[in-house]
Fold this sequence. Notes:
The structure is a single chain. By secondary structure, the protein is α+β, with helices and mostly antiparallel strands. Helices cover 40% and strands 20% of the residues. The protein is built from seven helices and four strands, in the order βααβααβααβα. The protein is globular and about 40 Å long.
Amino acid sequence: MTIERTLAIIKPDAFENHHVGEIIQCIEKSGLTLAGMKMLRLTASQVERFYYVHNDKYFFPLLCEMMLSGPVVVMLIEGESAISRWRQMIGPTDPAECGPETIRGAFGESIRHNAVHGSDCPDSAAFETAFFFSESELV
Ligand code: CMP
């Protein structure tokens, strides 16, 4: 049994569409545990540093613009195989490829406005959770 930590972000589109409560409920119902949570307006510097792996992609400016368009909720989720379980719950990047049982299938509008983020592997999860949370901020 591997207890993992991963990062979830409720993105500005889901925030604007009032899906914050439903997304948190999905996490709680799944049996994963919320160990940290913050509501933030990200800065351009934070977005560029957080998504540095995509900075050479054609969609990077659009991604930054979207993440700066409104508030986000960042959460540290903990539990057995949390990284893969959260990725499975959110579905593929493009909501058009997601089943209705996934969070992006239910709440995403497009590949750009895809409702939520999830760390894709242990290295990303370590970088992304430390990016937003220090140990003293976790319950
Ligand atoms: P996320 O899982 O947060 O990781 C990178 C993000 O880039 C992704 O979700 C999408 O929001 C965004 N993204 C990926 N591909 C595209 C694209 N083709 N056009 C616009 N945004 C994209």
